[in-house]
Amino acid sequence: MKLMIINGPNLNLLGKREPEVYGNTTFEDYFGKLKQKFPKVELEYYQSNIEGELIQKIQEVGFDYDGIILNAAAYTHTSVGIGDAIKAVTTPVVEVHISNTHQREEYRHVSYISPVAKGVILGFGLQSYDLAIQSFLA
Ligand code: DQA
C-alpha cells in the first residue's frame, strides 16, 4: 500500500501557525509518528505553498499510488485547477482538514475538492491524517 500525503500552503508552518487552531506539533514530527504507527504502509509526504506544484504532484503520483491524502489548505476553497487534477488522475483522493472548516468563516465552507474526493475527514486535528490512512486500509 503506497500512499502520498500532500499538504498545501502554510502547512509548512504547523506547530508555529495559529496554535489555538492547528496545534503545537510540526507536521514532520507527526509524520514520523504516522510512519511508526503504520510500518507496512509506504508513506510519503510532500508540501508546497504553490498551487501549480500541488497539481504537478497530483499528476505525478496519481496513476500508480494507491491513494492520495490531500490537505489543500486555503486552495481547497478556491482551486478549480486542483479539483480538475483530481478528476484527471485515477488514484483516489481523500480530502483532510485539521480544523472543522464548517465551524469557521463562511468562505471555508466551500470546497472544490469534496465533489471529486473519495471522502472527506475534517475537524480531528492532526488525527484527521491518521483516519484517512485507516480509510485506505479498511
Ligand atoms: C485547513 C483549513 C483551511 O481553511 C485553511 O486555509 C488551512 C488549513 C485545515 O487543515 O484545517 O490552511 O485546510
TrEMBL record:
InterPro entries, per database record: DHquinase_II (IPR001874), DHquinase_II_CS (IPR018509), DHquinase_II_sf (IPR036441)
Keyword terms, alphabetized: Amino-acid biosynthesis, Aromatic amino acid biosynthesis, Lyase
Domain of life: Bacteria
Active site, renumbered: 22, 97
Top-level class of the enzyme under EC nomenclature: lyase
Statement: the UniProt record of this protein carries the keyword Lyase: yes
GO molecular function: 3-dehydroquinate dehydratase activity
E.C. no: 4.2.1.10
Binding site for substrate: 71, 77, 84, 98-99, 108
Matching CDD domains: DHQase_II
Pfam families registered for this protein in UniProt: DHquinase_II
Sites marked Transition state stabilizer: 17
Pathway entry: Metabolic intermediate biosynthesis; chorismate biosynthesis; chorismate from D-erythrose 4-phosphate and phosphoenolpyruvate: step 3/7
Catalysed transformations (reactions): 3-dehydroquinate = 3-dehydroshikimate + H2O
Keyword Lipid metabolism part of the UniProt annotation: no
Xref: HAMAP family: AroQ (MF_00169)
Role description: Catalyzes a trans-dehydration via an enolate intermediate.
Subunit-structure text: Homododecamer.
Entry's family note: Belongs to the type-II 3-dehydroquinase family.
Protein's name in the database: 3-dehydroquinate dehydratase
